[in-house]
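User: Here's a chain of 409 residues. Predict its fold as tokens.
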Amino acid sequence: NDIFTLTYVFDTGTENDPALNLAFDYLGYLGSESLTAEQIASKMYGIACSFSMQAGPTSCRISITGLGENMAEAMEIVEGLLNRPKPDEAILANLKADMIKSRADAKLNQSRCFGALRTYVFYGPDFIRRTTLTNPALEAMSSEMLLAKIGELMGKQHEVLYYGPQSEKEVTEALAMHHKTSAELQPLDKKHLQLLPTDESKVLMAQYDAKQLYYLQYANLGKQFDVAADPEITLYNEYFGGGMNSVVFQEMREARGLAYSASAYIMQPNYADTKYGYMAFIATQNDKMQMAIEAFDEIINNMPESETAFKIAKEGLISRLRTDRTVKEQVLWSFIGLRNLGLEEDRDKQIFEKVQAMTLADVKAAQEKWVKNRKYVYGILGDIQDLDLNYLKTLGPIRTVSQEEIFGY
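Assistant: Prediction complete.
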């Protein structure tokens, strides 16, 4: 395989600057001191290479990919852009206008609104404020400010991941020659994103004018990662909420006709110092809300037991584990994911070996240990005037959150 992928990874924890997302978008339209944006695109195309930049709330990645023989030339082009970008105020003005419109459009989209509410429920208003530019803050960003953000990022500690045909010596030499960094990189304070506690039940409502609502219930299970729990959690998720044959889908949509869509699962930590969570979701008609929530609550706390469904779930899981392969650059990301959890051995091996001897009774035991009788935060996106608020008050105190609160702008 002559294709390479080179990725600079900045694991910034929860300290990431929200302006970096705008800065990366801006940089993608610019040229460098020596090449225009059009010349960069033409040269990268000519050497069969490309690059991408991603800035999320907790990490940043800059990736270069293409023909291995052209890696050094591709690095030189991309590094030139990263370190010596040429600002363009007209591009920045257009980019800001596009982002403001995209943000307004997001508030008209039910799925985007629900995604914002879900993030708010999981992580709270402080996280939204920390990781989102308000519209006035976005408008106030200048070229100088944004390109300084790129410079600051490149001065921070990061890892370089490489997959491709070159030898270790060749890659090391290419990095020494083309990846210019400071002698001393600024350390990163990696504080991992934590789920909010769910010490008491409450309802968070967001307005959306529609005849159907999106509903979630979320619990922080309060337990840190334990690899020994992988088999029972994985099999529970597969049996209860794993797909069209799962208990949740069959009960809520097929048998009772109470939801367009339904799922439920134990959320696994990404880091050793973060917690397990529980997430359940349904999309249903406004006039079916109470019936749907009560039915959902019943099957979550008193899980239906079906040997037929269990057999399908178990066989499906084993088959998937047997055929799954971690290949190419996925090997690197798998290694990092395991390292984040303090592990050295692939998790699927243990799951595959232990699940084969597990029974429906093991799934029931997992449900009682991890799920039954939890306190929940309920998130509901729907037309508030069309919903039975008296019923919702029985779930917990109600608070309405605005679009500005859940989106951060």
